[in-house]
Amino acid sequence: MTTLDIKIAGDPVLRAKAEKVTKFDKKLIHLIKDMTKTMYMANGCGLAAPQIGLSKRIVVIDAGDGVVEMINPEIIKKEGSVVGLEGCLSVPQFEGDVERAEFVTVKYQDRKGNVIVEEADALFAIAIQHETDHLDGVLFIDKAVTLRPKEQFETDNNGM
Ligand code: CO
User: Fold this and answer.
1) pTM higher than 0.85 for the full model?
2) Residue 97: which region, alpha, beta or left (left: phi > 0; alpha: psi -120 to 50)?
3) How far is CA 10 from CA 16, 70, 91, 114, 137, in A?
């Protein structure tokens, strides 16, 4: 497995609309494994493919219950509203409060192409919204209601 370089805000790949994945092959599995390793090495709880320079609709999330791999994720239902502190591995210097739906239902494909529909709340729901935004070229700083410089030695893990 390889750790991939994380692209930082200002890189145009982070502003592009990512392409749907149509091939569920060994290359995809390899890529997902590298993305997962990269997320963990960066102490993040989520990572989207554009963040490693690949404009494809792939995200990995670990909201505390192990890694969930989502290919072509689509939020099909949102409910409630919650404001929480977010950071982003592609915006390492800032953190801020973002308003999100409290509950989401997401439809995605697994690494084999099987369609899965899942309901999420808490950090998992936030991460799904943050990561699917990445696939549409949207960063949390576009939506943050407050934004502040991140403490340099902060270990608190809200990067995604
Ligand atoms: Co992010």
Assistant:
1) yes
2) beta
3) 12, 25, 9, 34, 11
Q: With contact defined as beta carbons under 8 Å apart, do 160 and 47 qualify?
A: yes
Cα–Cα distance list, 27 to 2, 4, 132 (Å): 13, 15, 22
SS3 label, residue 42: coil
pLDDT tens for 95-131 read: 999 999 999 999 999 999 999 999 999 999 999 999 9
Residue 79 annotated among the catalytic residues of the structure: no
Answer for the pair 39, 8: CB distance below 8 angstroms, yes or no. no
Nearest C-alpha neighbor of 111 from the set 34, 8, 7:
34
Distance from the alpha carbon of residue 45 to the mean position of ligand 1, in angstroms: 9
Given the residues 95, 99, 131, 151, the one annotated as active site = 131
